[in-house]
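Notes, Module 5: Reading structure tokens.

Key idea: the token line is not a picture. It is a compressed description, and you learn to read it the same way you learned to read a sequence, by spotting repeated patterns. We will look at two proteins. The first is printed below with its tokens.
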Amino acid sequence: MLGGYGNAPATELTNAAVEQQKITELRIRKSFGNGEAGAAAADPADRRAGRLLAQLAPRAADAPPLRSPITTHVLDTCIGRPAPGVGVVLARRAPGSAAAWERVASGQTNKDGRIGDLLPPGDHVEPGHYRITFDTAEYMGRCQQEHPAFFLPTRRFYPSVSVEFEIQAHQAREHFHVPLTWNPFGYSTYRGS
């Protein structure tokens, strides 16, 4: 930008985004009011502004390389190994809904039982209520063929595992690793690093 702007282009774009967000919020309040409906309708504008600000923020020279903000790892505790080929679906609760989910991404665990690229590399994730679902039934079917002594056809109890977690606005720049330790009769999960 040339001329009378004393700020860097990224600063000017940030200022413009903030002003546009204010205009959008005023229009939403006029249309939907200040209650829950207005807050739900305003959420996409907040998310768009957050994404824009995250993209404009300069990265420190010593910052680690970008990676998927949400990753997972599945360990099969029955055979004591990573679980390759487990189908995984990541969903986010639809804004303003207690029951509707939007599919965000999907993939399969690699030979080490990991999915490191569930989302595009970045240093920001949209705040919200997430659910990651593991298709353990399909994996178990393969295990029954490969290890019939450990995985009897009648020994399937968890055909899928869904883990819900919440990312708050102040955590949007953190990394979330959601591992699953699984066997036919039990599973455990935790927030990894």
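Here is the second protein, with the sequence above and the tokens below, as before.
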Amino acid sequence: GRAAGCSFVNETCIDEWGRVSKANQEFFCNEYIGDQRRGTTDEIQGCSPDLSSKAVCSIGEYETELPGEYQYFSSTLGSHVGGDDSFIDFCPVYKGFSNGDCKNPESQAFLGLASNEDFGSRNSRCLSGLIAQRRTAFCMQIACVVEGQYLFVKINGRWMLCESAGQELDFKSGSWNGKIVCPDPIRTCPTFYCDRDCLGTNGTCDYNTGECVCSYGSPSRPVIGLCGNTTLESELIDSPLMDYYVPTTDDLDGFRRRRTSIVLWIATVSCGCIALILLAFLLRWTGCLNRPRMCFRTAREGGEQIPDFSSNKDKFVATLLFHIRVHNPNETASQTAGETENSERDASVGFSFSESEVGDDPSIPGSDPGKVGEEEVADDIAPACIIRRRIRAE
């Protein structure tokens, strides 16, 4: 009943309907096992008070009726049923099996339930739980981490945090789904709250303040106050509690490797992001991501190549003027008046023609029309959007 409160002492262990309150489930039980189920794993219903071994509920049937105040199961199992110890008011409690010690590797052959149980480790302890919706118990490794005051349970190779009593941790064992019910961290790791759990002070731990409290004065008029210094030496005590105490999480088997793998994963992702950013910057710097958008495709159907207009801009303009005159004769007369002005403007912006270019284009004064046939102008001339862009560029 350590740190169980006043209700543990003042109230009954089993209510009138034969049920155990949630606060007392770690200490008392009400599961009655018939003779046909004894000697099987169905007997496993909980853990011994010190969590050292799997246990069975110490409930049985007497030949005579129990005293009226101890007939906890009169409305369910009968007035003859109760715990096997009169010293604790016939309250049924968990009693460990002789072959149910979790630190003994040979216990697995007799009381092993799940494939992920751990028998034989120094820090293996019994934890209540469920498997296939049936109440039972498992042997698992536990650890009280001094730095941070955490209680961990190792399930399927992973350390899982128990933050409060009654917290359920899900796990899978083969085709079965199971749950581990976390023990009370205060009772499981008592030295988190008081140094050495007040050993050597003749006092008890106040879990609210973390101080050792002693009783002074006479038994009739006790005075409660803080205890003095412990009479024990400062070195660590080799006790069952110290089997599962570790200074930091780095001392947990497998916990450091898991944390290291997470760090490596984060570092890998970060390096990949940086590499992508640098690649994008390099492509943009070289111009691969900043080329002007073309208004035509890279290649036309039939394999015709896109004409290169950058080799001889002046010749391109002259060819364009010739094309307009040949293919738009109705508009030539209306444009004659404006040609002189356009020619003067062309001259003013720097258009000039070499003798070879003049001889090839009949639209230019002094050219030889007979040489035009040597270079036929394609009907499928470049799109007008490129022409306008080229002229503006000039």
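Summary for the second protein:
- The CA atoms of residues 61 and 81 lie 4 Å apart.
- Helices lie at 7-10, 108-111, 185-188, 255-286, 313-327, 329-348, 355-360, 384-393.
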